């Protein structure tokens, strides 16, 4: 039986990974909090779309966010594992703030560690208004790491259906899909 594809949400602390995860799963499973470093252990849930199923993984924020060195090391290790195993990477940046050193650190890590065929989707979160969405599309356009960029507002659910479509499209390109799973090809 073919394995379930893995879709990992990666990003620095507080960029809205868990909120996005909950939106995509359709239930409040991961803890959402304004305190950076909330997610410590990664959480995974099966997400069903019309065409393709996948295992969505919410990870702890990478690149620092707390003063606890052991915590940072542990979270970094877990998130790096998810990154290495992922078939698709959703890289979150906060649309309400400038890019930080941690964001750039993750970009460098993605360049080094992601497998060549693994698509990166840049998800600019917290774009709650049309103006923020437009500004973010310009501001984050040239990070140079992602196959595509999408803005979301998990608060309003904007961009979430579109992101589901993007995930399904990439999974199909990578030859994951219900038909193949069902027929065992
Ligand atoms: N306005 C707004 N706030 C958001 C949105 N998404 C997340 N937030 C807020 O941003 C804060 C951080 O969200 P989380 O989902 O916990 O962030 P995280 O990336 O999982 O954080 P760590 O687990 O610490 O790495 C919370 O206060 C959320 O309510 C959004 O689309 N719009
Ligand atoms: Mg979290």
Strand order in space, largest sheet:
2-3-1-4-5-6
Order of helices and strands: EHEEHEHEHEHH
Structural class: alpha/beta
Q: Radius of gyration in whole Å, from Cα?
A: 16 Å
Topology, pairings included?
Elements: E1 6-11, H1 17-25, E2 43-48, E3 53-58, H2 69-85, E4 88-94, H3 101-113, E5 120-125, H4 130-139, E6 148-151, H5 160-173, H6 178-183
Parallel strand pairs: 1-3, 1-4, 4-5, 5-6
Antiparallel strand pairs: 2-3
Sum this structure up briefly.
This protein is 37% helix and 19% strand. By secondary structure, the chain is an alpha/beta fold.
List keywords for this structure.
binds guanosine-5'-triphosphate; single chain; Rossmann fold; 6 helices; alpha/beta; disordered C terminus; binds magnesium ion
Description:
With 185 residues, the chain is an alpha/beta fold. It has a single domain (6-183), classed as P-loop containing nucleotide triphosphate hydrolases (Rossmann fold), CATH 3.40.50.300. It is built from 6 helices and 6 strands. It has helices spanning 17-25, 69-85, 101-113, 130-139, 160-173, 178-183, and strands spanning 6-11, 43-48, 53-58, 88-94, 120-125, 148-151. A 6-stranded mixed beta sheet has the order 2-3-1-4-5-6, sandwiched between helices. The longest helix is centred in the middle third of the chain and has 17 residues, at 69-85. It is globular, with a radius of gyration of 16 Å. Mean pLDDT is 88; it is low at 180-185.
């Amino acid at each position: 039986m073919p394995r379930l594809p893995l879709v990992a949400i990666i990003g620095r602390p507080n960029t809205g990974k868990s909120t996005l995860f909950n939106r995509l799963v359709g239930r409040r499973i991961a803890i959402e909090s304004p305190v950076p470093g909330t997610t410590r252990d990664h959480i995974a849930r099966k997400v069903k779309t019309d065409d393709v199923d996948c295992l969505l993984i919410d990870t702890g924020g990478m690149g620092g966010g707390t003063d606890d060195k052991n915590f940072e090391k542990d979270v970094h290790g877990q998130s790096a594992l998810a990154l290495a195993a992922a078939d698709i990477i959703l890289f979150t940046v906060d649309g309400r703030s400038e890019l930080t050193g941690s964001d750039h650190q993750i970009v460098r890590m993605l360049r080094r560690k992601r497998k060549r065929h693994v698509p990166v989707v840049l998800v600019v979160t917290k774009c709650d208004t049309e103006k923020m969405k437009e500004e973010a599309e310009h501001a984050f356009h040239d990070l140079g790491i992602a196959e595509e960029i999408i803005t979301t507002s998990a608060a309003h659910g904007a961009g979430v259906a579109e992101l589901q479509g993007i995930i399904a499209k990439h999974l199909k390109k990578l030859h994951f899909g219900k038909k193949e799973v069902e027929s065992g090809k």
